[in-house]
Amino acid sequence: MSLNRLHADVVIVGAGPTGLTLANFLGGMGVSVLLVERNLTTVQEPRAISIDDESMRTMQAIGLHHEVGKIVASGYGSHYYSPAQQRFLTVEPTSRDYGFDKRNAFQQPDLEQVLRDGLSRHASVRQMFGWEFQAPRPDRRRCGRHNRQPSHRPGARRQRAISGRL
Ligand SMILES: Cc1cc2nc3c(=O)[nH]c(=O)nc-3n(C[C@H](O)[C@H](O)[C@H](O)COP(=O)(O)OP(=O)(O)OC[C@H]3O[C@@H](n4cnc5c(N)ncnc54)[C@H](O)[C@@H]3O)c2cc1C
Questions:
Q1: What is the pTM of this model?
Q2: How far is the CA of 42 from the centre of ligand 1 (A)?
Q3: How far is CA 32 from the centre of its chain?
Q4: Which is the closest atom of ligand 1 to the Cα of 108?
Q5: Which residues pair with residue 51 across a beta bridge?
Q6: What is the pLDDT of residues 110-160, one digit of tens each?
Q7: Closest C-alpha residue for ligand 1 atom 4
Q8: Residues 6+ apart with CB under 8 A from 46
Q9: Among candidates 137, 132, 126, 138, which has minimal Cα distance to 151?
């Protein structure tokens, strides 16, 4: 990839759920996007665990609600117990105001993978994993290299950096 020729209408820094969702949105509209992620992969560790009905509508808007539906446990409830094993709270929402269950359990690595796979539908989105975006400086607008330990790949030593011109 020639860094001298890299340009895009939108640069998204970070391929977490937010950046990946935004990239899917913009890609669906044909906007040219550069998605820069310092790690080599999407996250591998469990983090967020619940996606609500409004966010499921967002998944629908980017055309991935069926795929996301496969990796969630829809409409789960929670029972809360005291140390004496007495239930003191029950949360079991049944409404589907937005067409989806209110609470849906998931694992963040699975969701991120679905979102990243979804980007393959959009030719206007380019992904740069293993690159760190650095704020533009007046005297330095190209890429450079520096030593950082990227996560998600044990043993990897170098991580490349890219800076942009706004
Ligand atoms: C240990 C942990 C446990 C958590 N547990 C829960 C939980 O139980 N329930 C829950 O709801 N939420 C949990 N969360 C929170 C949840 O993971 C976040 O709300 C969610 O990941 C936010 O998504 P995001 O896309 O906004 O940001 P992130 O997921 O943080 O994604 C941002 C991405 O940007 C990248 N990035 C940042 N700067 C640069 C740069 N300069 N160049 C290139 N890339 C860059 C980062 O590497 C990262 O991948 C947890 C978070 C952590 C860290």
A1: 0.86
A2: 10
A3: 18
A4: 17
A5: 104
A6: 999 999 999 999 999 999 999 999 877 665 555 444 445 555 554 444 457
A7: 47
A8: 107, 108, 109
A9: 132
Residue 118 carries which DSSP code?
H
User: For residues 25 and 50, is the Cβ–Cβ distance under 8 A?
Assistant: no
Cβ pair 112, 46 in contact under 8 A:
no
Inter-residue contact 101 to 38 (CB < 8 Å): no
Determine whether the shortest distance from the Cβ of 19 to ligand 1 is under 6 A. yes
Q: pLDDT, tens digit, for every residue of 55-107?
A: 999 999 999 999 999 999 999 999 999 999 999 999 999 989 899 999 999 99
Burial group, residue 11, by CB count within 10 angstroms (0-12, 13-18, 19+): middle
Q: Please tell me if the CB atom of residue 101 comes closer than 6 angstroms to any atom of ligand 1.
A: no
Cα–Cα dist 139/89, whole Å? 59
- Residue 17 Cβ inside 6 Å of ligand 1? The answer reads yes
107 C-alpha to center of ligand 1: Å?
A: 13
What SS3 class is residue 73? strand
Pocket flag, ligand 1, residue 48 (CB < 6 Å): yes
pLDDT of residue 137: 67
Domains of the chain from N-terminus onward: 1-45+108-166 (3.50.50.60), 50-106 (no CATH)
